[in-house]
TrEMBL record:
<dbReference type="GO" id="GO:0005634">
    <property type="term" value="C:nucleus"/>
</dbReference>
<keyword id="KW-0862">Zinc</keyword>
<dbReference type="Pfam" id="PF05033">
    <property type="entry name" value="Pre-SET"/>
</dbReference>
<protein>
    <submittedName>
        <fullName>Histone-lysine N-methyltransferase SETMAR</fullName>
        <ecNumber>2.1.1.43</ecNumber>
    </submittedName>
</protein>
<keyword id="KW-0949">S-adenosyl-L-methionine</keyword>
<dbReference type="GO" id="GO:0005694">
    <property type="term" value="C:chromosome"/>
</dbReference>
<dbReference type="InterPro" id="IPR001214">
    <property type="entry name" value="SET_dom"/>
</dbReference>
<dbReference type="Pfam" id="PF00856">
    <property type="entry name" value="SET"/>
</dbReference>
<feature type="domain" description="Pre-SET">
    <location>
        <begin position="53"/>
        <end position="112"/>
    </location>
</feature>
<feature type="domain" description="SET">
    <location>
        <begin position="115"/>
        <end position="238"/>
    </location>
</feature>
<dbReference type="InterPro" id="IPR050973">
    <property type="entry name" value="H3K9_Histone-Lys_N-MTase"/>
</dbReference>
<dbReference type="InterPro" id="IPR007728">
    <property type="entry name" value="Pre-SET_dom"/>
</dbReference>
<dbReference type="GO" id="GO:0032259">
    <property type="term" value="P:methylation"/>
</dbReference>
<dbReference type="InterPro" id="IPR046341">
    <property type="entry name" value="SET_dom_sf"/>
</dbReference>
<dbReference type="GO" id="GO:0008270">
    <property type="term" value="F:zinc ion binding"/>
</dbReference>
<keyword id="KW-0489">Methyltransferase</keyword>
<dbReference type="GO" id="GO:0042054">
    <property type="term" value="F:histone methyltransferase activity"/>
</dbReference>
Amino acid sequence: MDINKFDWTEGLENKAIFSNDKVLIFKMKKSKYVTQNIPGPGCEMDDFEDKLLGCQCLACDRDCKCTAQYGNAYKDKKIDLTLLGSSVTPVFECNSNCSCPSQCQNRVVQHGISVQLQIFNTDNKGLGLQTLEKIQTGTFVCEYAGEIISLQEAQRRCNKQKDTDMNYILTVKEHCKNGILKTFVDPDKLGNIGRYINHSCSPNLSMVPIRVDTMVPKVCLFANRDIEPLEELSFVYGTLRPDQKTGTKCYCNSNGCTGFMPFDEELKSSFYFLE
Ligand SMILES: C[S@@+](CC[C@H](N)C(=O)[O-])C[C@H]1O[C@@H](n2cnc3c(N)ncnc32)[C@H](O)[C@@H]1O
């Protein structure tokens, strides 16, 4: 097979994603592409099946039920920069039960990928994802989507990993009234293009959990600054601890590099995200 003609999204996204000519065929993961989160072992099925109520707006304004409680997350389809990276406010987009049209300003991530992306070979982090076009600050790039699994299943999968294996399980921790809500996403075997995004201590993407039709958060990545063509896309895998002296060595090569990848004590893995 000619890898340069291989669409890594299996034709399932708005835009095909190819790799550059340096990516070797054996690097292709045997994973199945999914465009959004799917239920995996141990997940709460009600969270997937219970549909959120919709608004009755023809054009959503200040009285829209979807944004009345927490405010508008978007302006001109770009996310409010204050939500990038440090969001404490949940974001609900208008959904399939809403009366508003698909061009509603409160519908962004549900429309999928709009930027031309490419898989490439990094020097020492395996594969990575880069942009082929300029991306403006606040633009939605892609989700980090995969199987939603329970803590026990995440621990079981992490325990099975060898030290040299790449880890794809992301823990999202959202602070809410009743404590910390944890979501475990594993795109290793069933995942979208987000699985190829590497960690950086000075990233150009920020993660925001966003809900559309159900309470299962979509883990959404937005540009936190203007990004130039061919820049590698990256986000922070977890809280950076400059005093951390062990763990997986970080090769992000940025000025602010702490030397090691973030580490999740609960999973004993080097991948989590605390909001
Ligand atoms: C979600 S995957 C990212 C895509 C991966 N590079 C690939 O080839 O499929 C996470 C893994 O990539 C590698 N990785 C990501 N960021 C890294 C970094 N800054 N330094 C070293 N390794 C990194 C680690 O092996 C990590 O477990």
